[in-house]
Fold:
Amino acid sequence: MPLEKYQDILRPNMEHVHMGVMKVDHDKCTKCGLCMRNCPFQAWELDEGGYPALKEEYECFSCYNCKVACPNDALIIVDPYHVDEGYWKTDPYPLPAKMPLEPKDENGNVTEWNAVEKIIYNRRSVRNLKDKPVPESLIQRVLEAGRFAPSAGNCQPWKFIVITDKALIKEIEKGVTGILEFFYAAYKSDKMVQNLVPLIEGPPFAPGSVDPRVILGGVGSVVKNKEIMGVAFNAPVLILVLGDERSISGPALNIGICGQNMNLVANSLGIKACWNGFVANVLNTLPPLKKKLGIKAPWTVVVSFCLGYPEFKQEGIVPREYRPVTWFREGADGPEIHK
Structure:
């Protein structure tokens, strides 16, 4: 019965799940290969002419990492990731991919983005990192940005674990990858998929853990490319952010604020960062590693970051989905929908 109840979640009709479609402008492409390297799902290969082309079978959820890495703006968005029927239906669809709306001042006049806006719009998760240590002085600045984040009731429910020991990072990668391999195999098997029902039923109710983008894209990419891409991206620094389960409003909201502070400061220092949900989520299911890292209740790993120096430019502004905004204005008869 449980599997039948969640059939549409765990077994979506893949005819209705459409991966993102990109193409390369051959007139602009210099065959540098950076788009291929910056794709987290390894969706590209070289065609007969030596140009990047999407593989016959691939996963793409329109993160546009390929586009942001291209030095010649040779990547063209053909169609974004979308689902047109079932539980995972994109709502509403289609969603236009828009660049940031034109900035205006308090009088409605066109102006320039300020420094904070520029940092936010240009920030991207950076996964291709150099094998170069990050000075502890810079790591400490990232930690301080988190420590001084606002929190509900000023409860400050966070702890930080910093790992620069390469052997320990590899040990964590091995443990996490092992769980992800089971997760992926269970999802792909009609006999084993029943084992994923508890993840959905919770608590909390968490269907997002089996979103096709997570399973086919994220987890599938780690499992299929584990020999060339570790789950920690070969980063020289791994930071675990722990949250107190007793925290006011719960740990997720507070650690989200704290983590965004850390992420933005890391990027501003030139060392770059990447949110890493796989390490955080899976570590909580590995008692031996939790014990080794000194993680005890009521503390749990809420999020993790990989830090390092970028191998090449992986930041910049790319389009984002634009959902209609509902406004209730003074004196209006009802809501106004801005599309």
Observations:
- The mean pLDDT is 94.
- The two ends are 41 Å apart (CA to CA).
